[in-house]
Amino acid sequence: VFPEATIRFDVDRKASRARAESFLRDQGYDVSGYRYASAFQYDDSAKVFLEKELGLKAMDEAVEKTARIWKWSHRWFRPLQKEEYRVGIAPTGELVGFERALDEDAPGGTLPEEEARSAAESFLRSLRPAGLEDLRFLGASSIDRKNRTDRVFTWERTDVDWKGGRYRHRVTVQGGKIGGYEEYVQVPEAWSRGYSRLRSSNMTAGAVSSVLMIATMLAM
């Protein structure tokens, strides 16, 4: 059975769009007048890792309980404008991703790291019934823009270890506002490198086989 066959769809495209728009309004973002596009997407790297390392049965359990690798992706944009909004809603209805793209010179001010982290924590608590109790804070990074400072805070689930794979939550504070959110499977770097080498070898072998087949046909 393919993993896709076990996806539980509590919300369809239309219902997930309504939830995405409601989230943007709650954050104070107005997308009226923007163009709109949507797609159903998934994290291919996480899917392959969980399939190969856990097997389909354990993967289904991991996805059902924790790893939201499938999502309805909604985008609001204007041609030739940098600022746009993307919101990811899981098939079960939860927010799993948000991104506000901004010009590097866009204003936004600067919050001290402590205040920005407090804002990020409040945002994360609003999404998770468990709050932060099952999360370990990994650290913060910052980028000083011309007219604002963007800060990124990352947490990791303490109760998840899929053969080295972890589950993380990342919140971005742009100036003084929440500007991004992502929850994702952190695939072990060594596994990713090994899988990339395997794919490269398979592609090379396939290309060689194709050349030999063509050469054989031309020689006949």
Order of helices and strands: HEHHEEEHEEEEH
Number of helices: 5
| First-residue to last-residue Cα separation | 42 Å
Can you count the beta strands? Answer: 8
Instruction: Specify the biggest β-sheet.
Output: 8 strands, antiparallel
Notable characteristics:
single chain, 220 residues, alpha+beta, 8-stranded antiparallel beta sheet
Short description:
An 8-stranded antiparallel beta sheet has the order 1-2-3-4-8-7-6-5. It contains 5 helices and 8 strands. The termini are far apart.
Q: Could you explain how this protein is built, in words?
A:
The protein has 5 helices and 8 strands, in the order H-E-H-H-E-E-E-H-E-E-E-E-H. It is α+β, with helices and mostly antiparallel strands and 220 residues long. Strands 1-2-3-4-8-7-6-5 form an 8-stranded antiparallel sheet. Strand 7 and strand 8 (177-186) form a beta hairpin. Helix 2 crosses helix 3. It is globular. Residues 201-212 have low confidence and may be disordered.
